[in-house]
Amino acid sequence: MRRMLILFGWNALLGAQAVLAQVSGYTPPTGFKTFSLELTSGVVAVSPSGKMAVATGRFGGGATITVYDRIAPQGRQVLTTVSHAQWQFFGGLAWRDDNTLVFAENGDLDTLLEWDTTTSTVNTLAPVGSLPNVADVAIVGNQVLALGADGPNANKLYRVANGTVTVLVDAYGTGYAGGLGFHNGLIYAGDTNDPAFTGNPGQVFRFQPTFDADGLITGVSLVDVLSLAGGGGSGVVSFAFDSEGDLIATTQRTLTLLQGTQSTPFGQFSGGYPFPTSIAYYGNGFEPFQGTGILIVNAEYTEVGGLFAITPVPEPASLLMLGAGMAGLVFSRRRR
């Protein structure tokens, strides 16, 4: 019996070592660990129950969206897939509810579509061609917000509702639009702030929306513009909010954490020209050594080479207690 306990203890310690293992190509902040999702690429979104949608583009058409039953690769299964000959590239993805996925196609269609994953029905939410260069999307009530990445002083913020496209912001940003979210009553819209790709830090515009009696956004006013310079990266491709309300953005050689109005690095990629893209968050608690939240990053164009996840590691005290208990067990056996 004691021998079985010792073996169990050693296995637990080995498991703790595995918990602290990291993927190659990205160094997370202290208190976090990484693991590979064993998928090579894709735009990512996670449903309220933890189902993961991964949209993979394809030149010439036939791009595919796959929904998995979970995030972690262990035991993961495909629930359903959808593809179409006219789909080439995807902008953003957003779950309207646990079974309905909204996505942007920005190859030939330049529109938003909605997929009922239970019936495999796909509906077009806006006229084809009505959303040029459509990028990230966000759900706000019964409407969809979308970015148009049209370039310096030309990026757009759209509202799509009842089959109609409304321009909320006609021109914003000095670079290219990337990253969109709705948090605490404000709209967050990213801008690379780097039109010549010289390494300028990205920035995030915050807008206050105005709603009508039906809950539709009728207009927005600029609140402020937040710099991501403190993150040590450049530009911004996309971002996600964690369960604490902090914004985490993909900013080339780093991820950038924006807490309130202050930005700091959130880990760093190795290599010459890393370019992480899509990012998504799921779970509760995302602090050093605390929580079970999972941040998913598409790092296809980095030395990581695919999708990976970042999550808090267990409290150091718990690992020390496990080690102390193991040592005591072994010592006790030796005394006998």
Task: Walk me through the structure.
The protein is mainly β. It has a domain at 1-20 and 316-336. The protein is 11% helix and 45% strand. It has 2 helices and 25 strands. A hairpin with a 2-residue loop joins strand 11 and strand 12 (143-148). The longest helix has 20 residues, at 316-335. It is globular and about 50 Å long. Residues 1-19 and 324-336 have low confidence and may be disordered.
Summarize the model shown.
It contains 2 helices and 25 strands. The protein is mainly beta. The chain has a domain at 1-20 and 316-336.
Structural class: mainly beta
The sequence of SSEs as H and E is HEEEEEEEEEEEEEEEEEEEEEEEEEH
* Cα-based radius of gyration, to the nearest Å: 22 Å
What is the spatial order of strands in the main beta sheet? 1-22-21-20-19
**Strand content of the residues, in percent?**
35-45%
Helix content: 10-25%
Distance between the termini: 14 Å
Q: Low-confidence stretches at least 5 residues in length (pLDDT < 50)?
A: 1-19, 324-336
Mean pLDDT reading: 91
Strand count:
25
User: DSSP helix count?
Assistant: 2
Shape label = globular
For the biggest sheet, the summary is:
5 strands, antiparallel
How are the elements arranged and paired?
Elements: H1 2-19, E1 26-27, E2 32-36, E3 43-46, E4 52-56, E5 64-68, E6 78-83, E7 90-95, E8 100-105, E9 111-116, E10 121-124, E11 134-140, E12 143-148, E13 155-161, E14 164-172, E15 177-183, E16 186-191, E17 203-211, E18 217-227, E19 239-241, E20 247-251, E21 254-259, E22 262-269, E23 279-282, E24 294-299, E25 306-312, H2 316-335
Antiparallel strand pairs: 1-22, 2-25, 3-4, 4-5, 5-6, 7-8, 8-9, 9-10, 11-12, 12-13, 13-14, 15-16, 16-17, 17-18, 19-20, 20-21, 21-22, 23-24, 24-25
Helix pairs in contact: 1-2
